Amino acid sequence: MADSHAPPPATADLFGSPDEEAPWDEPIAPGAVLLRRYACSRAAELLAAVKAVAADAPFRHLITPGGQRMSVAMTNCGDQGWISDRRGYRYGAEDPLSGKPWPAMPDSLARLAREAAAHAGYADFAPQACLINLYRPGARLTLHQDRDELDLSAPIVSISLGLPATFLFGGLQRADRPRRFPLVHGDVAVWGGPSRLAFHGIAPLRDGVHPATGASRVNLTFRKTR
Ligand SMILES: O=C(O)CCC(=O)C(=O)O
Ligand SMILES: [Mn+2]
Description:
Layout: E1 24-29, E2 32-36, H1 43-56, E3 73-78, E4 81-85, E5 88-92, H2 107-119, E6 129-135, E7 141-144, E8 156-162, E9 165-169, E10 179-183, E11 188-191, E12 200-202, E13 217-223
Antiparallel strand pairs: 1-2, 2-11, 3-6, 4-5, 6-13, 7-12, 8-11, 8-13, 9-10, 9-12
Bound molecules: 2-oxoglutaric acid and manganese (II) ion (MN).
């Protein structure tokens, strides 16, 4: 073995594998923060949970009220799931594909969302919905507000896994020019308070392959719906 006496890298003990960085916070607006690499150490567990959810409630491309097929494929877990169709955007307790309740939110997901919210200054976040977005290269989410929730006092917690993406984060008016932030595997975005209704989106995903997810990006967005 080469160099068996070399000390382990400084982060090895705390963060599991030597190539994992220690997380750090990057505030981006009042009430909004990027928790850089916050979910890295739990990514494998999160992706296993996503796989189990998708086995029950498969990813599908929803249709917007305007009749467009969304480029991002979606599914949900939790008491409520976000859906879109010709009738509009809304939350519902059942998966319209199966008529059955959405799969329960795995504890690993709920726990991480709650901890991330608390870390960002939002104590006692109890998400009822976890929307899971699957992006393949070219998929995008145009600028929008998350405003289908009845309780806007709770923040949004959004975990990025797999391929990197560009997060567009604007202001409270659609016309406010969004700033662009790279989001990579394990980053968690939390926004609430004065930023709860900020316009945001994801630029078209670029080609690539990630060791954890292959040619895709997985995003988990946690919300208190009512
Ligand atoms: O994929 C992301 O990072 C953002 C997802 C999002 O904004 C949404 O699902 O409403
Ligand atoms: Mn959103």
